């Protein structure tokens, strides 16, 4: 799916010459879909290697889908062999908070967190007691590889390249990009989605599922609900050309 010619002529956000960016939306435990897109990227790089290729992942790697652990394994391995930027999503923040406060497990389950536990070999009961919640999170701490924890703790909130600003959820209208707060970058919805502000950069984001990539004059949403739809979106950007598949 490409951008309309009308959009390209009027706006034309650009990357610096020689740079190609591959951006991938919310994975949510779908390691199978992520692996498929990494294969697509590798084939594209083999066909036409740019001077510099940057792979940007927009956060929400865990929860909801069946294999959060394998997703983190893939991303960590990818970062060792390619230039990658893995952004934090609200689900990564929630996982770190649950590790500190097991009482939040009941809240985490509404975000699909129990599937993350299962991916690490931990089988939770449907309604764990307070004592069982502590036991489950202690089990997760033991099962979580140190490199997974380090990965989660070091994720940046945003990434800028050329005229593009990559972020998980969006930005708060009326606030300069350099003064945005993590709470908005990771959680914002309607105030951002309804805004026609140009923000100073073109925003590439996920967080709010859409059936197909939502292309606007000021932003593009590439969260296509992979865990539920089986559709994980890849956005390729080079120069002022954007292509989503």
UniProtKB/TrEMBL annotation:
Q: What's the superkingdom here?
A: Bacteria
What InterPro entries has UniProt attached to this entry? Ap4A_hydrolase, Calcineurin-like_PHP, Metallo-depent_PP-like
What's in the GO CC field? cytoplasm
Q: Which residues form the Calcineurin-like phosphoesterase domain?
A: 19-211
* Pfam family for this entry, one: Metallophos
Matching entries from CDD domains are given as: MPP_PPP_family (cd00144)
- Please provide the Gene Ontology terms (biological process) for this protein: RNA decapping
User: A single GO molecular function, which one?
Assistant: bis(5'-nucleosyl)-tetraphosphatase (symmetrical) activity
What PANTHER family does the record tag this protein with?
Answer: METALLOPHOSPHOESTERASE, ZINC-DEPENDENT ENDOPOLYPHOSPHATASE
Q: What is this protein called?
A: Metallophosphoesterase
The protein's organism comes out as Bradyrhizobium nitroreducens
């Amino acid at each position: 799916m490409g951008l309309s010619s009308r959009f390209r002529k009027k706006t034309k956000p650009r990357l610096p010459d020689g740079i190609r960016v591959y951006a991938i939306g919310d994975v949510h435990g779908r390691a199978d879909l992520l692996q498929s897109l990494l294969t697509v990227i590798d084939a594209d790089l083999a066909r036409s290697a740019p001077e510099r290729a940057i792979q940007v992942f927009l956060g929400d790697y865990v929860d909801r889908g069946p294999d959060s652990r394998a997703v983190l394994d893939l991303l960590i391995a990818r970062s060792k062999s390619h230039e990658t930027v893995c952004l934090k999503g609200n689900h990564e923040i929630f996982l770190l908070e649950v590790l500190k406060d097991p009482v939040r497990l009941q809240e985490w389950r509404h975000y699909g967190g129990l599937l993350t536990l299962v991916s690490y070999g931990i089988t939770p009961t449907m309604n764990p007691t307070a004592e069982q919640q502590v036991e489950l999170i202690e089990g997760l701490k033991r099962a979580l590889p140190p490199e997974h924890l380090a990965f989660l703790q070091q994720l940046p909130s945003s990434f800028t390249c050329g005229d593009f600003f990559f972020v998980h959820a969006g930005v708060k209208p009326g606030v300069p990009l350099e003064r945005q707060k993590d709470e908005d970058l990771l959680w914002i919805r309607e105030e951002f989605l309804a805004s026609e502000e140009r923000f100073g950069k073109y925003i590439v984001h996920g967080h709010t599922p859409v059936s197909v990539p939502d292309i606007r004059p000021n932003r593009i949403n590439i969260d296509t609900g992979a865990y539920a739809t089986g559709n994980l979106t890849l956005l390729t950007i080079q120069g002022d050309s954007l292509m989503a598949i």
